[in-house]
Amino acid sequence: MSISSGATAAPRGGAVGSPLLAVDDLQVEFRTGSGVVNAVNGISYTLAQGETLAILGESGSGKSVSAQAIMGILDTPPAHITGGTVVFEGRDLLTLPPEEQRQVRGPGISMIFQDALSALNPVYSVGFQIGEMFRAHQGLSKKDAKRKAVELMDRVRIPAAAQRVNDYPHQFSGGMRQRVMIAMAIALDPKILIADEPTTALDVTVQAQVMDLLKDLQRDTGMGLILITHDLGVVNEVADNVAVMYAGRIVERGTVDDVFSRPAMPYTEGLMTSIPRVEAKGGRLVPISGQPPNLARIPSGCPFHPRCPRRRIGAEAAPGRDCAVDHPPLRLVVPGREAACHYSEEVLGV
Amino acid sequence: MGRYVARRLLLTIPVMLGASFLIFAMVFALPGDPIAALAGDRPIAPAVAAQLRDDFNLGDPLWLQYAKYVGDLVQGDFGTDFAGRPVLDTILQRLPVTAKLALVAVLFEIVIGIVAGVLAGIRRNSFFDNLVLVSTTIVVSVPILVLAFLAQFVFGLKLELFPIAGVRDGWYSYLLPGLVLAAGSVAYVARLTRTSMAENLRADYVRTARAKGLKPSTVVVRHTLRNSLIPVVTFIGADIGTLMGGAIVTETVFNIPGIGRAVFESIQRQEGAVVVGIVTLLVFFFIFFNLVVDVLYAVLDPRIRYD
């Protein structure tokens, strides 16, 4: 099938064109019986056509929750979006009536998930599940939808698509299942694709194939890609820009090349030194000490300060920049680079 | 699948032989003399008694009696009761009554049980959910005998909505006994559906369905209910086999001439041929409906394959 291709992929690094999506001060909390968990605490970013934005963070940093908030698929309760705006095509998705929000999911923004085996319904054939996109949004008949499904399966390079369209998810390998998910997500030619850890459940060679497929599809369609991951290698290979999340906040943002070569936030710095490197063979990996914070009790000041090797507390700190007291906002440190650290200049060495 | 069904059907033969022998042996072991009981207080001529004993092979040892019975059975002869009435006639007369009662009960399970379970599962911790939890707890903890009399008293006698007993009003007279018979299963189906729905609503593929921009009704019916009904259908299918066994209490309280009461009466009269004939047939139904459930399971869940 032909997917209209108006745009070419953005060059690596930097946003190109007007933003497709603008997230501003998004806040999500989970209200549970034992208290309030602050999962997302005011994150902002924009995504341009053809851009690949990686959202990097540990488990529980709020990266998946923020994506589900944008999609409007959080379970409410317990999750509540308590503030912010998500502007897509001139409309704030968070204030749209549910029916209009639903119509954005699929043709506007679509999403793929980590474990395709559990994310696909086991009792329907893959052709049916892909075809549902056309039936729900374009009112196609069951037969036409299935024909479209075969075309899509071809497009995501599933061999013998016509024979396999009636197979069930459990009859596919892990990599092929993730391709089915991708076929479903790109069915309606979305402007934005959110990939939530798309390769985490796959082995390394299959990971590379799936990432290549996503990049090819993006090149063909010019869609914006939000890649949620904790895999630094994947970020380095495919993303243009990266936003590092910690305790529900973005703590550093910039182009992948800049952030990876010269971090401006001690947390990012810690992540970079924990990457195994070929040239440092035989050396020890340097882990970040301590545990990620409990989101029900986020530390005061900078949420990273209890684990930070560069923290300055009390008399050591500059006035108004006590890491244990004063919350560091995300600020422009050098052109094209934002970080949430009182002492970013020092980290950068500028 | 075909081979699997054939193998399962072949397996029913030894099961039915075993079951019928056990039942036969139990009737044989009952204390008392059925011929003397048949005569009651009136004296019976020894020659007549001996003739009856001979007709019904009552003088033979157990194994020979059973062998003669099975020999007749494979020729399609279910034997007769002491009054000379063919057992097959009794079965053909009583079974449709029980089948109707079971059908009404299953419809209640499907309609009330599943609807209540789905609504409670979707709106967990709501007023309706709690209502379902409390009412099902009450229903399963009250003995069916109490439920039967209560229903008869309130709906039959006081409100006069339903006939108090008997089956003279056609299908309508089966509604109240059907509801009483189904009560426990309705409660179970409601709870099973509720749990299954609540569990599936949290499933990853339901989140996917929402991310696809499907209508909320499609998400619930196609991607949650369909998956949630697999264990429910399995239970209801197996329950049909149980319900076909008749319900002695319900049939007795509501004076319904079904198969359950026929068995009960035959046991009291020590009519071996009737008891064994009917119960063996019921064992077959039970096995058959369980087989249907297993086949249905594979249809509902494509991950299950028997070959």
From TrEMBL, chain A:
It holds the Pfam family oligo_HPY. It comes from the Bacteria. Keywords: ATP-binding, Cell membrane, Membrane, Nucleotide-binding, Transport. InterPro entries: AAA+_ATPase, ABC_Ni/Peptide_Import, ABC_transporter-like_ATP-bd, ABC_transporter-like_CS, Oligopep_ABC_C, P-loop_NTPase. PROSITE patterns: ABC_TRANSPORTER_1, ABC_TRANSPORTER_2. SUPFAM superfamilies: P-loop containing nucleoside triphosphate hydrolases. GO terms for cellular component: plasma membrane. Residues 21-272 form the ABC transporter domain. GO terms for molecular function: ATP binding; ATP hydrolysis activity. Its main location: membrane. It is found in: Cell membrane. Gene3D superfamilies: P-loop containing nucleotide triphosphate hydrolases. It is a peripheral membrane protein. GO terms for biological process: peptide transport. PANTHER family: DIPEPTIDE TRANSPORT ATP-BINDING PROTEIN DPPD, OLIGOPEPTIDE TRANSPORT ATP-BINDING PROTEIN APPD. Belongs to the ABC transporter superfamily. NCBIfam families: oligo_HPY (TIGR01727). This is Oligopeptide transport system ATP-binding protein.
Automatic annotation (TrEMBL), chain B:
One of its GO terms (biological process) is transmembrane transport. Its main location: membrane. This is Oligopeptide transport system permease protein. CDD domains: TM_PBP2. Belongs to the binding-protein-dependent transport system permease family. Keywords: Cell membrane, Membrane, Transmembrane, Transmembrane helix, Transport. It comes from Blastococcus tunisiensis. Residues 95-297 form the ABC transmembrane type-1 domain. Pfam families: BPD_transp_1 (PF00528), BPD_transp_1_N (PF19300). One of its GO terms (cellular component) is plasma membrane. It is found in: Cell membrane. PROSITE patterns: ABC_TM1. PANTHER family: DIPEPTIDE TRANSPORT SYSTEM PERMEASE PROTEIN DPPB-RELATED, DIPEPTIDE-TRANSPORT INTEGRAL MEMBRANE PROTEIN ABC TRANSPORTER DPPB-RELATED. The chain crosses the membrane at residues 9-30, 101-122, 131-151, 171-190, 232-254, 274-300.
